[in-house]
Structures are given as C-alpha cells and as structure tokens.
Design brief:
193 residues, 2 domains
Length: 193
Amino acid sequence: MRMHRLLWVLPAALLLAQGPPSDPPMAPKHDELKQAIGLTDDQVQKLMDLRHQERDALRSVHQQMRDKGKTLHAALDSSSPDPAALGTLLLEMKSLRGQVRETNDNYRQQALGLLNAEQKAKLKQLEDAAKLAPAIHQGVGLNLLAPPGGSRGFGWGGFGHGPDEMFGEGPGPGGGPGGGPGMRMGRRPGRRL
C-alpha cells in the first residue's frame, strides 16, 4: 500500500518541482520613445542590437569588477588587511569603472549616429525634460502636481490614498497589492508590521 501511494505522489512532486512553464522573454516595447522622437522600427532594432553588443563587450569587465569586489571584501574582512593590496584593488576597480564609462560613451555615440537631425533635436528636448524629473517628483510629493499616469495620492505609485496606506496596509510603496510589505512610515497602535 505504501509503495502504491509513493508511485502516485512521486510523479506529482516532480511535476510541481518543475514549476510553471516559462514563456519566452518578450522584447521590450519602445512605443513612447518611437512616438516622441519619430523612430522607425528599423532604427529601434539597430539600437537594440547596439545595446546587446555593448552588453557583450562589457561582460568580462563586469565579471572582473565582481571578482575584484569579492577580493576587496575578503581582504577587508581579514584579521590584518594589507593597505597596499587594498589600494591596488581600489585603483584597479576605478580603472574598470573608467572602461565601462568609455564603452558606454562609445556605444552612445554609435546610437546617436543612427538618428537624423530632427530626431536628435527631439531627443535633446527629452533630455532637457528628464532634468526636471526630481522637481516634478517633489511637486507630486507635495501635492502641487498630479502624478504621471493619473494615479492619485502621495508619490508616483498611489501611496497615501488614506490613513491605512500610509502604514503599509494598501497599494503603492507603503504596501503591495493586498497590503503586502513595503516602505512604512510609522507604526499605528494595533497594526501589525
């Protein structure tokens, strides 16, 4: 009888362990950017290809940065860290960050080369508008501006629709859908944290 149950439970357990079937990752959409600066589908594809090339070009540099970071942490955690070795690691990490910056700049210039003059002018307008994002966010936080996307309340995520939301019981950053964990501003008596 025990063996019979095991034969039924084992395949079910194996199926559950596999988890749900995964869908192939969807390509990101760039509809808003396409509309804002007039990109064609061909340009978007070329820009995405450039990003993939950039990522591949930086893969080894990022791995080196991770390895050096681990080595640095291990050296700092040792009982007697060698100051010269720590300094060398820090300088090597600074050099790697410079390589990342240089590679980013190179690929950005290639990407900009795919745009025509009109698109570059519209991109400059977007860049100028992006500089206003902190002021806009602060204006939303002080309820001087309506948040983008039409959400209400404090912040961009709908935080603060009422007293419960301020304390992590509702939607937005103060609590996920259904009152999940999130940033909490304080504790109210009788409320679970």
